[in-house]
Design brief:
- By secondary structure, the chain is mainly beta.
- The chain has no helices and 27 strands.
- Strands 1, 2, 3, 5, 8 and 10 form a six-stranded mixed beta sheet that branches.
- It is rod-shaped, with a radius of gyration of 34 Å.
- It starts with a strand and ends with a strand.
């Protein structure tokens, strides 16, 4: 019987800790057990067994870093707190529990909270110790299924959403679990809870295909192991071009009137601009982006291009975060009649990133 660092199904195996001559005897029990083939059965005679110990040397040592609970099953002919159980770290620190037996001759499961024990004092356990602390009467007891449960993984964080095409989006996330809480896999769900795919442990992205053009999709990522699961926040993104109508009636930014152009952070959108030769061309518009768009990210940009002019670009500045900013494109004088292209372009894949354009005015 030893500590198993895994789930309960592979807990104490029933290996004999040690055999002592009377006054304290321990041996394998094949009948009275809770799992596996054997349990530890120990006999502690009245008086003479007081303060006697059984020690099981563990090799190789067991690492319980970040583990918070040890579970075991115990049964005794005496009720009360008569037995002390310890785990010794190779550094010399021993941590004890004295379980209280509430009913005689019935197995009960003990949850041993080791969350207050530093990792330095549980990262190399080399001994399991059983000690008799009350021998006012003889006692026969059994210990089985001693194990440290797995820890549910931490929730991942979605840190990227990118429209790769009109039919695909890449979802990226940060893996926040390792060690005792390591995930077995990641699961990608729709916002309504439909399972879309599973990804192997330590994977941090998934490219979703087969989507519809300029349609909004909402997803969350679940980290899973046998101890449980944890979910990221739900993130919404659009396939290309990533454009939508920003409506004041829905609480979305508009500068004048009921509507503006809204875009996810990596959107690309184009307008046709008919122009004539011989007259100076100026385009003005208002632009803004939200906090989620990101500080160091390249700001949304407008580019005018086409026949008869030199391509001209102008970008939003830091003043455009959550506030409208006037942009001017002075394109000069077109050398021919043409239909130019005004292109709006975003550069942020940060979840929740959006930018907006309103009041485009072409003057010639």
């Amino acid at each position: 019987m030893g500590i198993s660092v895994s789930n309960g199904g592979s807990g104490g195996s029933g290996i004999v800790i040690v055999r002592y001559p009377i006054p304290f005897l321990s041996y394998s029990e094949t009948t009275i057990k809770t799992q596996g083939t054997y349990a530890i059965k120990s006999s502690a005679p009245v008086t003479t067994s007081l303060n006697k110990t059984l020690t099981r040397t563990v090799s190789p040592t067991i690492n319980l870093t970040d583990r918070t609970i040890i579970k075991f099953d115990i049964r005794a002919t005496r009720t009360g707190s008569n037995i002390k159980i310890g785990i010794r770290d190779s550094g010399g620190t021993t941590t004890y529990i004295t379980p209280n037996i509430t009913s005689a001759n019935v197995y009960q499961t003990i949850d041993w909270d080791i969350s207050a024990v530093s990792n330095a004092n549980k990262d190399a356990l080399d001994r399991i110790i059983i000690e008799i602390v009350n021998a006012d009467a003889s006692n026969t007891f059994y210990i089985d299924n001693l194990f440290a449960p797995d820890i549910p993984p931490n929730a991942p964080t979605i840190n990227r959403a990118a429209a790769l095409s009109n039919t695909s989006i890449e979802w990226g996330w940060t893996d926040n679990s390792s060690g005792a809480s390591q995930e077995d896999e990641f699961r990608v769900y729709s916002s309504t809870g439909g399972l879309l795919t599973t990804r192997t442990a330590d994977t941090t992205f998934w490219i979703e295909t087969g989507l519809k053009r300029n349609k909004e999709y909402s997803r969350y990522i679940q980290a899973y192991n046998t101890a449980g699961s944890s979910n990221s926040a739900t993130i919404t993104w659009r396939t290309k071009p990533g454009a939508f109508q920003s409506k004041v009636s829905q609480g979305q930014p508009t500068r004048a009137g009921a509507n503006a152009f809204g875009f996810v952070g990596d959107a690309v959108w184009e307008w046709d601009v008919p122009v004539k030769s011989g007259s100076a061309l100026t385009i003005t518009t208002y632009i803004r982006y939200n906090t989620e768009y990101g500080g160091p990210t390249t700001k949304p940009k407008l580019t005018l291009s086409g026949k008869g002019i030199s391509p001209t670009s102008v970008s939003a500045t830091s003043s455009a975060e959550n506030a409208w900013e006037l942009l001017n494109i002075n394109a000069g004088t077109p050398s021919q009649n043409a239909t130019l292209t005004l292109r709006a372009e975003g550069f942020s894949n940060t979840p929740g990133a959006k930018f907006y354009i309103d009041d485009i005015n072409v003057s010639q």
